[in-house]
Amino acid sequence: xxxxxxxxxxxxxxxxxxxxxxxxxxxxxxxxxxxxxxxxxxxxxxxxxxxxxxxxxxxxxxxxxxxxxxxxxxxxxxxxxxxxxxxxxxxxxxxxxxxxxxxxxxxxxxxxxxxxxxxxxxxxxxxxxxxxxxxxxxxxxxxxxxxxxxxxxxxxxxxxxx
Length: 162
Fold this sequence. Notes:
Blueprint: H1 14-21, E1 30-34, H2 40-47, E2 51-55, E3 68-74, H3 83-96, E4 97-104, E5 113-115, E6 118-120, E7 126-127, H4 132-143, E8 148-151, E9 154-158
Parallel strand pairs: 1-2, 1-3, 3-4
Antiparallel strand pairs: 4-9, 5-6, 6-7, 8-9
């Protein structure tokens, strides 16, 4: 069995720092963190006056995914061992986003033993190893939408206005 482990943060994760700096996440827009773990990014966004919620089936089992102006999948996709589950979650997150989807994944090589299309780390967690280019291509291919890369492993998919 593959373990799931969330990381504790005292400040915003790098992807959320970038999303705030680029104005993707800001006051006046709602944000929902899918796979929020312990909810540290949500708490830190609220401290900045941003309307933020989160859900996580493992760490917050009573929480439910919501629609929001911006939906985030921050370091979630790279921890899902099943490719079909991974792509379905990405599509679901995109459908929940009213304006933009923020997606981030590790793009360094996690050490471990080969497992499916990634590795099992020494701590028993799964990591999908993507290069920066592979990750952006993956998101573009699954969603059929252009992506804007904010940094290696951090992309935004903006919805087109109807």
